[in-house]
Amino acid sequence: MKPHHRIFLILLLAGWGTLADLRAAPTYRLAADNRIQAQALVAKIMAENPELLTAGMHCVPPGGRAQTIVASTLNVIGKPSDPPDVEVGQHGETIISPNPKVPKLGIMLPLHDRAGNLIGALALAFRFPAGADPVACFAKATAIRDQVARQIASLDALFAPAP
Q: Which residues contact 148 (CB under 8 A, 6 or more apart)?
């Protein structure tokens, strides 16, 4: 057996699977390079709300077929949205996810434009120390989302170049 075949066989037997499984993890675009209106709104959300750890928007980009992260404080621009995030963006559900390890409280809300059309989801992660009130965080998240909606003319407008 040739040496390179032997290595492949060892990797296959060790649980690595096929060569397709050996591909690098997907890479996503950097938030700093995302120069669209949606990213500018996320930056504004963060600047005006110091109690937030992260923020992001999930939408189906114009001409796209699937909901992705279109703006974020994290470097995950273009990452496909997880199924629960898609549910929020398509059906208007809200998800509240406490994470006592960090501690933070994630809130994913339906995102609307100023006309009230459902256009995606807004993800907000709040600092959430022991004893914090999740209802107060939810109220704040709703207020942030509503304030952002008033600034969104349409889904397409989110993808316009930012100044």
A: 41, 45, 111, 122
Backbone angles phi, psi at 97, to 5 degrees: -125, 100
Q: pLDDT (tens digit, 9 = 90+) per residue, 128-160?
A: 998 899 999 999 999 999 999 999 999 999 999
Distance of CA 26 to the CA centre of its chain: 16
Helices (H) and strands (E) in the chain, counts: 5, 5
Dihedral, CA of residue 32, residue 36, residue 42 and residue 47, to nearest 10: 70
The pair of structure tokens assigned to 80 is 């496909």
What value does the mean pLDDT take over residues 110-125?
98
pTM over 0.70: yes
Q: What is the pLDDT of residue 13?
A: 36
**Dist. CA 16–CA 8, nearest whole Å:** 9
Work out the angle at residue 125's Cα, subtended by the Cα atoms of residues 159 and 92, and round it to the nearest 5 degrees: 60
Give the domains, in start order, of the chain with CATH numbers: 26-158 (3.30.450.40)
Separation between Cα atoms, residue 112 and residue 159, nearest integer Å: 15
